[in-house]
Amino acid sequence: MKIYTGRGDQGQTDLRDMTRVAKDDDRIEAYGSVDEANAIIGTARPAEGEDVNEVLAGVQNHLHIVQADLANPSPDEDDPQMSADHVNRLEEWIDSFDEELDPLESFILPGGDDVGARIHHARTVVRRAERRTVRLASGQEINEEVLRYLNRLSDLLFTVARLVNARAGNIEHSPSY
């Protein structure tokens, strides 16, 4: 596979169905933000704890499906697509990790150690990806499971950031209003 083609030199790119769109199209903005989140999650690996690493690797693989789903305005049955099973898997991970944490009693300031802070950063990028996907969905048809997945993913990343920080002995700080 050749890395460069020159086809994007004029500000256009191909969707999965070979439709040409501008690189600032809502669809490109949505899956580009997902790509950014995936890259940031990659900077948090390897994290302490095989369970966290496995979850983050699973999420990174899921995000490739999210991107493929968003890049395809007319998917066929065999095309990669998000499903309720993907969302359910996130919820299982959240519930499992949440059992190890103290109950959340207030908002917390994002931060902690390097890995925890990177996961918090990834969470905020996922929130942006969700907003971009909502914008896309207001004008074009998309798989609704993508929105559910992105919404739940930010919850998972918040939980994982708390978990990583708790395991490292970092104290959570609440904002002072």
Describe the structure.
The structure is a single chain. This protein is mostly helical and 177 residues long. It contains five helices and two strands. The chain has one domain (23-167): Cobalamin adenosyltransferase-like (Hypothetical Protein Ta1238, Chain: A). The chain is 59% helix and 3% strand. The protein has a two-stranded antiparallel sheet with strand order 1-2. The longest helix has 26 residues, at 114-139. It starts with 11 loop residues before the first strand and ends in a 10-residue tail after the last helix. The mean pLDDT is 94.
Which characteristics define this entry?
Hypothetical Protein Ta1238, Chain: A, 177 residues, mainly alpha
Care to count the β-strands?
Answer: 2
- Cα(first) to Cα(last) distance is 53 Å
Give the overall pLDDT as a whole number: 94
The H-level CATH homologous superfamily, spelled out, is Cobalamin adenosyltransferase-like
Helix content: 55-70%
Amount of beta strand: under 5%
- CATH-assigned fold name: Hypothetical Protein Ta1238, Chain: A
Gross geometry: elongated
The helix/strand series, from N terminus to C terminus, equals EEHHHHH
Regarding CATH, which class?
Answer: Mainly Alpha
User: Would you identify the regions where 5 or more consecutive residues have pLDDT less than 50?
Assistant: none
CATH architecture: Up-down Bundle
Largest sheet: 2 strands, antiparallel
Widest beta sheet: strand line-up: 1-2
Whole-number count of domains: 1
Count of helical regions: 5
Protein structure class: mainly alpha
